[in-house]
From TrEMBL:
This is DUF4080 domain-containing protein. Residues 162-396 form the Radical SAM core domain. Its cofactor is [4Fe-4S] cluster. CDD domains: Radical_SAM. It holds the Pfam family B12-binding. One of its GO terms (cellular component) is cytosol. It comes from Undibacterium oligocarboniphilum. One of its GO terms (molecular function) is metal ion binding. Residues 1-137 form the B12-binding domain.
């Protein structure tokens, strides 16, 4: 009987690390296990048809689905169709979205089995039981967490096609010792490292096969500095050996922990080689203590300032609107502090109620009202009305299009001026009032809207507004046309820094 591992990724470029872990740990079942990834947006019936093409004549099929907040709606539809047309197919669910609150989910009602938590050893064990009998009696199976050295690493399962065209997710550790109540990792209580030498040997082999873009999914990369230094040195060695063919690495870091040894290492990375995602979430100490987030704000601010001024690391800093106790005024204050520190991107998130997270303990006291549909975004709370939350959602969307995109690098400081949050909120309200849209606004139209706002709402002369906006387009054009002709082929070649560097970061570098 064939075992099929599948999921729906948000984009083709996102290769599922979770499925590859399962495949790597199938042992004697590996020969009969296949992996097939789909992308959100595909028709359920087409997906079911492809899944059933793995069923051998006269046999059943075990299908393991990786279920996440971004695909639970679609996978529920797929499972419903699958059970209608092929009820004999055995459906096993796993992933964070089905690991908690298992009693009230339609997808769990439809499935045969569910594995909560880690699936690396429990999924193959469950498949063995299904195949050899006796039939497992329980529907919900708590995933067993084996010692880290018993989990086989999956990186050899990235195909050459994956290496060429997709983001390679890697992890040197799992879990997080912190307890921020909005986050699923709050349930981990600690972090568990993989053997660092074995992990780096796998990275070496990926590198030798041509991998140049590594995205670390470790929740707190800089927690164990000794390990962080080893990993960074791995990339520095690669950069030194082949500066014309650079690697790019992305890490999630905690902001208030950047010892000197780590700074020395970070300083050595050239432009376009290093990206940090830094969670600030809130600068408000009352909110931080309410949600059990331990963060030294002064240290965090100093470190972000150091990174923006003393390193070439590209910084994405996360803030969350809608946390209990956060008013619009206190959020604006944190946002303005962050803008002043000068990170390249501010990821403006809206609070989501992830299944299993302890944030719900504040529901009554702070009147937290979440959308019942995934991704369970907050709609209103005691301090922010639904109408204002809608304004924040639009702000986040336009901020991504105008600020984070890097397409308005010269215009943005003029828009933000001396009160970034307040001014951008004015622009955001104005764009929405004039377009009724937050999606599918073409870049040309967006540029025209910003130019009109600068004139009508800020009194900027037309010629100055047009010149300002044009300077951004000229910047992009310069970047796009910045490659040199290859002498041997006559083809335009990207500059070395841009080859592994993600597009948005390239735009920020070019500005
Ligand atoms: S938000 Fe970050 S630091 Fe806090 S629990 Fe989650 S992963 Fe850990």
């Amino acid at each position: 009987m064939t075992i099929l591992l599948t999921t729906l990724n948000a984009r083709y470029a996102h290769a599922s690390l979770g499925l590859r872990y399962l495949l790597a740990n199938m042992d004697e079942l590996a020969a009969q296990t296949q992996l097939h990834e789909f992308v959100i947006g595909a028709r359920s019936t087409d997906i079911v048809e492809k899944i059933l093409s793995y069923q051998l004549p006269g046999e059943s099929l075990i299908v393991g689905f990786g279920v996440y907040i971004w695909n639970v709606t679609e996978i529920t539809q797929v499972v419903a169709v699958l059970k209608r047309v092929a009820p004999e197919v055995v459906i096993v669910l796993g992933g964070p979205e089905v690991s908690h609150e298992t009693g009230d989910q339609e997808i769990i009602r439809l499935a045969d089995y569910v594995i909560t938590g880690w699936g690396d050893v429990t999924f193959p064990a469950l498949c063995r039981q299904i195949l050899q009998g006796p039939k497992p009696l329980m529907k919900i199976h708590a995933g067993q967490q084996p010692p880290m050295n018993e989990i086989r690493l999956p990186y050899h399962l990235y195909t050459d096609q994956d290496i060429r065209h997709r983001t390679l997710y890697v992890e040197a550790s799992r879990g997080c010792p912190f307890k921020c109540e909005f986050c699923l990792s709050a349930l981990d209580k600690t972090a568990w490292p993989f053997d660092i030498d074995q992990f780096l040997a796998e990275m070496e082999s990926l590198y030798q096969r041509g991998a140049r873009l590594f995205k670390f999914v470790d929740r707190t990369f800089n927690l164990n500095v000794k390990t962080s230094l080893k990993i960074m040195q791995f990339f520095l060695d690669k950069l030194a050996a082949a500066p014309h063919d650079p690697v790019f690495a992305h890490f999630e870091v905690v902001p208030d922990h950047l010892p000197d040894a780590l700074k020395d290492s970070i300083r050595q990375f050239p432009e376009g080689a290093l990206q940090f995602e830094i969670g600030i979430q809130s600068f408000n100490p009352d909110v931080q203590s309410l949600i059990s987030r331990k963060q030294n704000n002064d240290k965090a601010a100093d470190n972000i300032r150091w990174l923006t001024t003393q390193s070439h690391a590209h910084l994405h800093v996360d803030l969350i609107a809608g946390l209990p106790g956060e008013t619009i005024a206190s959020f604006a204050d944190g946002f303005n502090q962050l803008v002043a520190l000068g990170p390249h991107e501010i990821q403006f998130g809206i609070l989501k109620r992830l299944r299993g997270t302890p944030i719900i303990r504040h529901t009554e006291a702070y009147a937290l009202a979440f959308d019942p549909q995934p991704p369970y975004t907050i709609l209103a709370n005691r301090d922010i009305s639904f109408a204002d939350m809608q304004r924040l959602v639009r702000f986040a969307r336009y901020w991504d299009m105008i600020a984070n995109s890097g397409r308005f690098a010269h215009t943005l400081p003029v828009i933000l001026h001396d009160a970034p949050f307040e001014n951008f909120m004015e622009l955001s309200d104005w764009i929405y009032a004039n377009t009724d849209a937050t999606h599918r606004i073409a870049l040309d139209r967006l540029a025209g809207l910003v130019a009109t706002w600068l004139q009508e709402q800020r009194g900027m002369p037309q010629a100055s507004a047009v010149m300002l906006i044009s300077s951004d387009y000229a910047g992009n054009a310069k970047h796009i046309q910045g490659g040199e002709k290859s002498r041997s082929t006559g083809q335009t070649q990207e500059p070395a820094v841009a080859r592994a560097t993600p597009q948005r970061q390239s735009r920020h570098l070019a500005a």
